[in-house]
Specification:
The protein is an all-alpha fold. The chain has one domain. The chain contains 21 helices and no strands.
């Protein structure tokens, strides 16, 4: 019973922190899009796109290598300290090189006047990279509650600082009759402006480092060079896969800047980035699932016939994704107000990105075959294939249809990666996924969405209520079909 229940429980705890954090962070998108122009928010989107790429480089697959060798090596503490020391030294080197040449880098990315913002971002990346191993240690020890607590502290501090600098001080500075105008004159610098987004993030990351100090101090700081070489051999293909993956996830926002006319590019990046956030709930679920699933899959790999368990996990994962996507689409009429009016012109990308992210989530599930069989090079091959598709389609479509081209490129990329990974997985680590049931539940969600779109009419609140009844009916129908199967796992339903 308790394999799936344990995974569900861990996902719920990780999910609590990540969902709360991401949802609150999503409210920051509302704060940004109502206080900054599309161009200014475009800068935020662009900088965090660079961050995604650099995070992959600076962590170089060490987190997954830590999980893998914690299972196979008898001395787990040695694995932890080796990974921690490796990332500490590489982070220091990264800071020395990147901050030392920050002026030149800012010129290359066409923001010569935003050097300070770039330095904030580089410091954020280094702190995120180093703390990834203490966080991984908490996951490996199943200390999900402490993991969740620190993550929530991180986002709480970040939000509080954003509300203070942008929500309070920025507006008070611009309104001389405001009660807080004098305070704003003392603490707010309009030259920093959108840079307060990065400064708030940096301070919150420093707070996280303080809270993770016990995990860092408890490390025995033994560096095993032979073990490190083994970990690097395992991790480097994941680095290549990660770079290709980031190309698939974020390159579209960067290419928009360089492939569209200079006068509109930053605005288009801002609009696309804001509307991308509307599909955030599905992205959140996928991320929280990954937090719990990666150690879960490794821990159960040696059990008898783990493939059967993996097949059930895939099925219920797809059900959950379809439920979230359906709920998002039928509630889009009010969800759209989470972004400022100038940004809503890009809402057409939401449907496309929901399907794309579903394909990505399935791909993450399927990817366990090459991690369990120590064939991580296939991760690089698959994401490399996706990167080629991403680049080709973006270069082709962006000049023709703008950010819609980026959305379609993302969908095609993830769909192809999903299908190819499934085919290869059948050859190297066969899992009998119940495709009939999975496709049946996906088609059910599509039918319910079409009913909502074409048949349900009436005043706004009535239509909204009927839409959400459709979402609830989806769950009830699935539960009706799966009741006996779930009973085998929990023994709860009689």
């Amino acid at each position: 019973m308790s394999t799936l229940k344990n995974l569900a429980g861990q996902t719920a705890i990780y999910g609590l922190s990540t969902i709360v954090a991401r949802l609150l962070n999503y409210l920051l998108v509302t704060l940004y899009t109502y206080n900054f122009t599309t161009g200014e928010y475009g800068l935020v989107t662009e900088m965090y796109s660079y961050t995604s790429f650099l995070m992959v480089i600076v962590t170089y697959g060490m987190e997954t290598a830590f999980f893998r060798f914690s299972v196979s090596e008898p001395e787990r503490d040695k694995v932890y300290s080796t990974a921690l020391i490796s990332l500490l030294l590489s982070t220091i080197l990264f800071w020395a090189l990147s901050i030392g040449f920050s002026g030149q880098i800012a010129g290359v990315i066409r923001h010569p006047d935003r050097v300070q913002d770039l330095i904030y971002v580089l410091l954020i990346i280094g702190l995120d990279a180093f703390t990834s191993i203490p966080f991984a240690k908490l996951r490996e020890q199943n200390r999900a509650s402490r993991f969740a607590f620190i993550k929530i502290i991180n986002i709480a501090v970040n939000i509080a600082l954003n509300l203070f600098f942008i929500g309070l001080c920025k507006n008070a500075y611009e309104q001389p009759d405001s009660t807080f105008h004098d305070l704003a004159l003392k603490v707010y610098n309009p030259k920093i402006g959108v840079g307060y987004v990065f400064l708030s993030n940096l301070i919150s990351n420093l707070v996280v480092l303080i809270f993770l100090a016990p995990e860092v101090v408890k490390a025995k700081f033994r560096f095993d060079y032979i073990l490190w070489k083994k970990m690097m051999v395992y991790a480097l293909p994941l680095l290549l896969a990660g770079l290709a993956g980031m190309t698939n996830e974020t390159m579209d926002r960067l290419l928009l800047k360089y492939l569209l006319p200079a006068g509109t590019a930053e605005n288009q990046v801002g609009i696309y980035g804001a509307c991308y956030k509307i599909s955030i709930i599905l992205t959140i679920f996928i991320q929280t699932f990954r937090y719990a699933a990666e150690p879960f899959f490794f821990n159960h790999a040696k059990e008898k016939n783990p493939q059967k368990l993996y097949a059930d996990v895939m099925k219920y994962f797809c059900v959950a994704c379809a439920f979230i996507a359906l709920g998002t689409m039928v509630n889009l009429s009010w969800i759209q107000y989470m972004v400022g009016k100038p940004f809503r012109s890009g809402l057409a990308v939401v449907k496309i990105l929901l399907v794309a992210n579903f394909c990505l989530g399935v791909f993450y599930n399927l990817s366990i075959w090459y991690k369990l069989t120590n064939q991580t090079r296939f991760g690089a091959y698959l994401t490399g294939l996706g990167a080629v598709i991403t680049l080709v389609l973006n270069f082709w479509l962006i000049p023709i249809i703008g950010y819609l081209g980026s959305a379609y490129a993302t969908l095609v990329c993830y769909a192809v990666m999903m299908v190819v990974s499934y085919i290869l997985g059948n050859k190297h680590y066969p899992v009998e996924y119940n495709l009939t049931q999975i496709f049946g539940y996906l088609i059910l969600s599509l039918v319910l969405y079409l009913i909502s779109k074409w048949l349900l009419q009436g005043p706004g609140l009535i239509k909204l209520a009927l839409n959400n009844l459709l979402v609830i009916s989806y769950l009830l129908i699935v539960f009706g079909f799966e009741k006996s199967r779930l009973k085998q796992y929990s023994g709860k339903w009689k």
